[in-house]
Task: structure prediction
Amino acid sequence: MEKYEHEYGAEQIQVLEGLEAVRKRPGMYIGSVSIRGLHHLVYEIVDNGVDEALAGYCTQINITIEPGNIICVEDNGRGIPVEIHPKTKISTAETVYTVLHAGGKFGGDSGYKVSGGLHGVGASVVNALSKWVELTIKRDGGIYQLKFEKGKTVQKLTKIGDSKETGTKVRFLADDTIFETLEYDYSVLENRFREMAFLNKGLKINVADLRGETPIKAEFHYEGGLQSFVEYLNKNKEKLHEKPIYIEKDGEVPVEIALQYTTSYSENIYSFVNNINTIEGGTHLEGFKRGLTKVFNDYAKAHNILKEKDGNLQGEDIREGITAVISVKVKEPQFEGQTKTKLGNSNVAGIVQSMVNEALANFLEENPAIAKAILEKCISASRAREAARKARELVRRKNALESTTLPGKLADCSEKNSEVCEIYIVEGDSAGGSAKQGRDRRFQAILPLWGKMLNVEKSRADKIYNNDKLQPVILAVGAGIGNDFDITKIRYGKVIIMADADVDGAHIRTLLLTFFFRYMRPLIENGNVYLAQPPLYKLSKRGMQDVYCYTDEEMEQKLAEIGRDGISIQRYKGLGEMNPEQLWETTMNPETRILVKVKMEDAIKADEIFTILMGDEIAPRRQFIEENAKYVKNLDI
Result:
């Protein structure tokens, strides 16, 4: 990687303001004090090592979860400067860790060409929110150490040895008086740092979890960069062409893009700015989409694959089945949007579009067989889109002629404020009948479904509109599907899937979740989808009120408390076994029920799981079942 030739010393570390209030209002700096905020501490420290890699000075980062949930992050970059800072009059390393907005990432004369940090507050915030931090630096021929407790320096910069190497090692223990939990989720960190290694080709990232009896370790090192990323994303999909298309361009805004078409019907495009996942997109994504649409339409017309009378292919036709990763490096990114992860720099759109226009057009001319295969899929998608439009219009006309636009089996609620309304999508007529009788009619609606529904992973939108199992769900939610979906039009604030606690029930849940993920994704992103948790057992005894247990562990605990003598244990196989009162008491009463909110922390991982479970490829599904069989608790025999 080319090194960014610039001084990195005390003069490049700018001090903007002090470190007050971080411990009082941690959510302002890391989003939350949940496990998500806990993981954010690790990301902040690792980002500093990645910034050294972006500058061309770091080739390896090691992240270790030590026993006791101590985090250790070590890189072989230049090491944080140790000389006295001209403004703070303390060591520069101490300044970086004790003064908010002190770092090498501000202003045009900073120590970095581009930086992954959104605000440059990482090190000091981690220090403020940790019980203790131990900082070891190799630089200028020496080994230096600093120690902090709850953001305050307890050991000034001390030279503890000599070394010809350079780098920074940070060990810290998060403060348990601030965070809800200190238990890191290894799989979440592993996924994050795998992604980071893909985005920085050549950088080696090692992740290790030493908390258990058997250490878990992973090494991520991808010379292929984004090409390797796309290959990983598509490993369980059937491809239209063997190798991803890869284009890159250096300059004012370096751009790197890899894309590959599969036989699936969904589009998966991931965009990054300075290694930050821009989940809301932005100008770089707009430029890519415009360039992609123009290039394929121009090629199709020039080679008579598409006639003038046919008009142009739409962007959504051209993006069907695509997997793409876009990565840009912007010196001073402007972020906007609700989560501050939408790129707003207007000049980036034109830069990306121009690059795609030139490089992708050249690729298609040089690879006519691939171009033809992709365009055949695009044209097929266009015909399916037209069929879906006609099916959608037919549904709308049909609804307009009927007295109500709601499905016949829906038992609606009387409340009209969607924020307090909830709909239970219930498996089976029997359970649906009990739910209708047991519900609170004021705010709870019931929609019974029967039989297996369509697997949307293997179907286009025209098939979905004509499906008698999914159409009632579309109509009841009331916000459309796919590109037409409008989250502001949903009729219920909570969409609750209520299925039996058995294999068939799990299948129903997976089918519905696949549908929501592929065609109503904002519903999940907005936190509107829930899973009802009916009890597994009822414990009965003469003279004792019935006790409901939702897990095997809970049942064992209750039996230990009340004793086993005279106890009758009923294992519920289905919702239909409960009468309306029991269903209300255990599964529908907001005061006593258990609901699981469906979250989408990682869209990449979610896409992979849905592809494995519901896609055409059998081998990955078999492997998934074999690897996870040991976790099965309630298997019907």
User: Anything to note?
Assistant: The CA atoms of residues 17 and 100 lie 6 Å apart.
